[in-house]
């Protein structure tokens, strides 16, 4: 590593810059993957302060990166990337919401439409097979494809 010591910076500075750059890139990528290399580079930078032997620095970089990946990464992922509660999205988010009947719901004639508050209109069927008149407020029980099953409130 004589090249680096004669040009702009020493070997330990090279490792330190590499570590900082890897930590910065890790901010924009998920998974705590590049951080394992950044930790390895940081350990190599500390080693470079005590020895100019690049082979020892590379060995420590490789060992530290591997150990961090195997032992620290699972705990870091568990801590930093906690699962969010399963929140319903899209059509599943409509279940339990209120809607207004915009076309009389009659299961026997396969007619009926609803409009959830703040949403688009849906084909609807009655959960209890009853006829539900226009302008009635209903609750969405479930969504099956493009059809909502509703009940009177």
Question: Can you put this structure into words, describing what you see?
Answer:
The protein is built from four helices and five strands. It is α+β, with helices and mostly antiparallel strands and 153 residues long. It folds into two domains: 2-80; 90-152, Beta Barrel (OB fold (Dihydrolipoamide Acetyltransferase, E2P)). The longest helix has 27 residues, at 54-80. The model has no long low-confidence stretch (mean pLDDT 87).
Brief sketch in words of this structure:
This protein is an alpha+beta fold.
Map the helices and strands.
Layout: H1 2-6, H2 11-27, H3 34-48, H4 54-80, E1 98-106, E2 111-116, E3 122-126, E4 137-144, E5 147-152
Parallel strand pairs: 3-5
Antiparallel strand pairs: 1-2, 1-4, 2-3, 4-5
Helix pairs in contact: 2-3, 3-4
- What is the string of SSEs from the N terminus onward? HHHHEEEEE
Q: Which runs of at least 5 residues are low in confidence (pLDDT < 50)?
A: none
**Count of distinct strands:** 5
**Order of strands across the main sheet:** 1-2-3-5-4
Kindly report how far apart the N and C termini lie. 77 Å
What number is the mean pLDDT? Answer: 87
CA radius of gyration:
31 Å
Q: Structural class, from secondary structure content? A: alpha+beta
> Any idea how many domains?
2
Largest sheet: 5 strands, mixed, barrel
């Amino acid at each position: 590593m004589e090249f680096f010591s004669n040009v702009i910076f020493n070997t330990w500075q090279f490792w330190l810059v590499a570590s900082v750059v890897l930590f910065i890139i890790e901010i924009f990528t998920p998974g705590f993957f590049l951080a394992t290399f950044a930790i390895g580079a940081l350990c190599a930078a500390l080693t470079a302060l005590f020895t100019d032997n690049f082979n020892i620095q590379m060995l420590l970089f490789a060992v530290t990166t591997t150990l961090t990946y195997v032992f620290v990464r699972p705990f870091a992922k568990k801590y930093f990337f906690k699962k969010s509660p399963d929140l319903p999205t899209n059509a599943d988010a409509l279940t339990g919401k209120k809607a207004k009947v915009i076309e009389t719901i009659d299961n026997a004639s396969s007619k009926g439409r609803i409009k959830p508050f703040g949403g688009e209109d849906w084909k609807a069927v009655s959960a209890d097979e009853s006829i539900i008149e226009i302008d009635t407020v209903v609750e969405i029980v479930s969504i099956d494809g493009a059809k909502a099953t509703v009940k009177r409130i």
